[in-house]
Design a protein that fits this description.
Helices cover about 30% and strands about 20% of the residues. It has helices at about 1-20, 75-85, 110-125, 130-145, 160-175, 180, 200-210, 230-240, 260-270, 295-300, 310-315, 320-325, 370-375; strands at about 30-35, 40, 45, 50-55, 60-65, 90-95, 155-160, 185-190, 215-220, 245, 290, 295, 330-335, 340-345, 350-355, 390-395, 400.
């Protein structure tokens, strides 16, 4: 029911976006192609994976879909399919969630320079030698489509931390590529999450507040996965003009992504191949119902559980290790031996009592042989006093030697 509700809301946003663009023939089919797209990171050039969803016929526009933290483009495949079925070219790249140079989807230090490079994808879309244009041309070639230019109408959408990226990239186009920003028809925020560090979302939303570019937002209830809806709080704080927002009273942070068919199939393929590591597409929202009733805990490999013996359970309990002597001896505390004593029943049936200061109620549990040897050593003084031999300390069945040079005879 919740997935159907999110699907209906997503369809509403897609339909509204389609109405805001020039009306063209509805696409009947679409094709998915996977390749890479170049982006600069510090002094290097990264080649992140990218998925292109190509509709049949002339596309209505280009939709840039950005996933969230610890996610991938596979999590947005279902939403991209809906856009492609509606006649849009959907572009979904996978950006790093952790990088030593700060080139991440979420701000873990200072990822603003990296997001500036991401904005050049759309900022230089008219350039046939640009990274986005080259990736698009490669996708058309793989799909067997004729070479065409990129659509000239843009929708920038992002889920979770990708919502912060969407707002920042849109504002970066406004300040650096005003001609390309004029082609942005919609900024779509799917339960956006603000990074704990930096002010990327505030910078983006404050800049968009000065424009008339439509902003659509879907928000789930505040809880841990969406950082208590801090992205929605930032949106309502910074944007003081009309925008379309839907806040749900139930649901999950992951529901806005769609049904996760591709993520589920990938998980099943990995498990069938015997891979024990967790798939990258399923790292977020562990233990929550993501998409159409899929419980990710059922998709993860089960841990092998070995039988535990009674002795192992006893040894694993520190308290029982102090009160019970494993092996043929049985011990009870302070019944016939007086307060703080331990009654020891030896294998031959002889009853022994020992006194100490390291067990429960002041008793020390010792096997009979160790107790006899301790009696032969006589009374022990502190090991730092001269003339004393080795001191034995019985603690949790271990003997610690404080003086290895001298032995008790």
């Amino acid at each position: 029911m919740l997935s159907k509700r999110f699907a209906a809301l997503s369809a509403l946003l897609i339909t509204t976006a389609a109405l805001s663009l020039p009306a063209q023939a509805q696409a009947a089919t679409w094709t998915q192609v996977s390749n890479t797209v170049d982006v600069s990171c510090a002094a290097f050039t990264y080649h992140p994976a990218a998925d292109w969803f190509l509709p049949a016929g002339t596309p209505k526009g280009l939709v840039y879909l950005q996933h969230g933290f610890s996610r991938s483009n596979g999590n947005l495949a279902d939403l991209a399919e809906h856009y492609a079925a509606a006649g849009f070219v959907a572009f979904a790249p996978t950006l790093p969630s952790a990088d030593i140079f700060g080139c991440t989807v979420s701000n873990l230090g200072n990822n603003a320079p990296f997001l500036n490079n991401v904005a050049t994808w759309l900022g230089q879309a008219d350039n046939t030698n640009g990274a986005l244009a080259r990736s698009y041309a490669n996708a058309l070639s793989k799909a067997g489509r004729p070479a065409t230019a990129l659509p000239t109408s843009y929708v920038i959408a992002g889920h979770s931390a990708g919502g912060e990226v969407a707002a920042y990239v849109a504002n970066r186009l406004r300040t650096t590529y005003p001609g390309q920003f004029a082609r942005v028809r919609l900024v779509q925020l799917l339960d956006p999450v603000k990074s704990f560090i930096g002010s990327n979302m505030a910078t983006g939303l404050n800049g968009l507040n000065l424009t008339s570019t439509p902003i659509f937002a879907i928000s789930s209830p505040p809880y841990t996965a969406n950082s208590n809806a801090n992205g929605t709080v930032e949106l309502t704080t910074d944007v003081h003009r009309p925008f379309l927002g839907v806040r749900l009273t139930t649901g999950s942070h992951c529901d806005a992504e769609g049904e996760h068919r591709r993520a589920v199939h990938d998980a099943q393929r990995r498990l069938a191949a015997g891979q024990r590591h967790r798939p990258a597409d399923l790292r977020g929202c562990l233990g929550q119902r993501c998409g159409r009733g899929h419980d990710q805990r059922r998709l993860l490999p089960r841990r092998r559980v070995l039988p535990v013996t009674a002795d192992q359970r006893r040894d694993a309990d520190p308290q029982r290790r102090l009160t019970t002597n494993p092996g043929p001896l049985e011990m009870q505390e302070g019944i016939d031996g007086g307060p703080g004593s331990t009654r020891t029943l030896s294998p031959k049936g002889k009853l022994r009592f020992t006194m100490g200061n390291r067990g429960p109620n002041g008793s020390t549990l010792q096997p009979p042989r160790r107790a006899a040897r301790r009696r032969r050593c006589g009374r022990r003084r502190r090991p730092d006093q001269p003339g004393q031999g080795r001191r034995r300390v019985f603690e949790r069945r271990h003997v610690r030697h404080h003086d290895q040079r001298r032995r008790c005879q």
